[in-house]
Design brief:
The protein has 485 residues and is α/β, with parallel strands linked by helices. It has three domains: 274 residues, Rossmann fold (3-Layer(aba) Sandwich); 114 residues, Anticodon-binding domain of a subclass of class I aminoacyl-tRNA synthetases (Four Helix Bundle (Hemerythrin (Met), subunit A)), CATH 1.20.120; 50 residues, no CATH class. It has 15 helices and 15 strands. The protein is flat.
Length: 485
């Protein structure tokens, strides 16, 4: 393996560039995390899995990665939902941060080096805003602070928008107090019932964009290597981050800007209004988290990803192929020791094939993290393993063959772990979890039949027993649904 071949598509230049980190051995990486007012949805899950895989590959080739992913725990959506639920906004945010980790852990997403929260970095945010005011890039209006976009001459360099049209289509309500319609809030004056902190401009809270500028600087410095996020964040969020950070620090914020593509559902844009908006744990009811992760990596991260059950079913079968090959390999290692079955020539040939597979896998990942091509290489690896096992024809294996199988197994685990895919020598927990939904559907059917017979004791017992193991049934006009408690 080598650090020399990696190329990354840089949104800011529109080209694939050779990856040369600021520090020879360490990579600084920042990605925008969720706003914590609900469970994460499929659109949140894609960048989680993508940038976790980017991090894993950087570590695989030998870099130490300082990975920062924030939580936006101060936001209008959090405040509004907290008011409806009659709890404190930060308590609501804490609840969904805990739920986030449950889903992220299920997807085998590694914890970040630091998960900073807006609420715990208010001093840094206020100091950042104050610095922009002093440098003449921001102005104060009745307790609000705005960034003046016309003062930052390179504004629009990420999104490729001009100063004249950069707010067009952004759905930003124009405030007449602004000097320019594209000026954006750094600090917001408190409104009745809102969360607030003291500042030089009075009580208030930060705007959305300033948070990431302040936290990335605190944990990665004024310049770092990779900033990641969804394509929808290019404008205005990431454009505004660049303006704030480079105006304040006077240096390039990030060398490489990476953005994953949108997700559609049955060829339509995913949105709440269309009713095709899926929470990730709703998908877990039917497909295991490992299948979902495999599916999210089956398309190149910059490409549009369409979501439907057929594609998830293809991912499930594909993952099963990889897991089956590994189980066959592990079973071969456990065979009775006896005479050699495989010739030395066969083992040497297989070893050369193994080295070629590793090279092809790395070439795929070096080409802007082409996980789709890397998965194709893993399928070839699984096919090779199946060929080796079929050559045994049920015979005993010798010591040198066991050592060979050990080497092949370790290589297989090394490559699959780069993608965050877990292998098991037994029928995996994820495969077993895929049986949960059909089994519960059987119980729901039995319960409905019992209710039709007016056997309410049986119906209630089924409901109560499921509840005791953490599964709730809900009777709706559309039928019975189930969910995890």
């Amino acid at each position: 393996m080598s650090k020399e071949g990696l190329k990354i598509y840089n949104t800011i230049t529109g080209e694939k560039e050779k990856f040369i980190p600021i520090n020879k051995s360490t990579v600084g990486m920042y990605t925008c995390g969720p706003t914590t007012y609900n469970f994460i949805h499929l659109g949140n899950a894609r960048p989680l899995v993508i940038f976790d895989t980017v991090r894993r590959y950087l570590e695989y080739v030998g870099y130490e990665v300082v990975y920062i992913q924030n939580f936006t725990d101060v936001d209008d959506k959090i405040i509004n939902k907290a008011q409806k639920e009659e709890i404190l906004p930060l308590d609501l945010a804490e609840k969904y941060i805990e739920e986030y980790f449950k889903d992220a852990d299920a997807l085998n997403v590694k914890r970040a080096s630091v998960h900073p929260r807006v609420s715990r970095n208010m001093e840094e945010i206020i100091n950042f805003v104050e610095g922009l005011v002093k440098k003449g890039y921001a102005y104060v209006v009745e307790g609000d602070v705005y960034f003046e976009v016309s003062k930052f001459k390179k504004y629009g360099k990420l999104s490729k928008r001009t100063l004249e049209n950069l707010w067009a289509g952004a759905r930003v309500k124009v405030d007449e107090r602004k000097r320019h319609p594209g000026d954006f809030a750094l600090w917001k004056k408190v409104k009745p019932g809102e969360l607030w902190w003291d500042s030089p401009w009075g009580q208030g809270r930060p705007g959305w964009h300033i948070e990431c500028s302040a936290m990335s600087k605190k944990y990665l410095g004024t310049s770092f290597d990779i900033h990641g996020g969804g394509f929808d964040l290019i404008f205005p969020h990431h454009e505004n981050e660049i303006a704030q950070s480079e105006a304040f620090n006077g240096v390039l914020m990030a060398k490489y800007w990476m953005h994953n593509g949108f997700i559609t559902v049955n060829q339509e844009k995913m949105s709440k209004s269309l009713g095709n908006f899926f929470l990730i744990r709703e998908i877990f009811q039917k497909y295991s988290p490992q299948v979902v992760r495999f599916y999210l990596l089956s398309t190149h991260y910059r490409s549009l990803l369409d979501f439907d059950d057929n594609k998830l079913e293809v991912a499930r079968k594909g993952l099963e192929r990889l897991e089956t090959a590994y189980r066959l390999l592990e079973e071969a290692k456990d065979r009775e020791v006896g005479d050699d079955t495989l010739s030395l020539e066969f083992i040497e040939k297989s070893t050369r094939e193994l080295q070629n597979i590793e090279q092809r896998f790395e070439e795929a990942m070096d080409d802007d993290f082409n996980t789709a091509l890397a998965i194709a290489v893993l399928f070839d690896f699984a096919r090779s393993i199946n060929g080796i096992i079929s050559s045994l024809q049920g015979k005993t294996v010798g010591i040198k063959e066991k050592l060979f199988f050990e080497k092949v197994g370790n290589e297989y685990l090394k490559l699959t772990s780069v993608l965050g895919i877990k292998m098991s020598s037994r029928k995996s927990e994820e495969e077993c979890s895929g049986l949960i939904d059909p089994l519960i559907q059987i119980l729901i059917k039995v319960r409905c039949e019992a209710k039709e017979r007016k056997d309410y004791n049986t119906a209630d017992n089924i409901r109560d027993e499921l509840k005791s193991v953490g599964i709730a049934l809900e009777d709706t006009p559309q039928g019975v649904r189930w969910k995890y408690l």
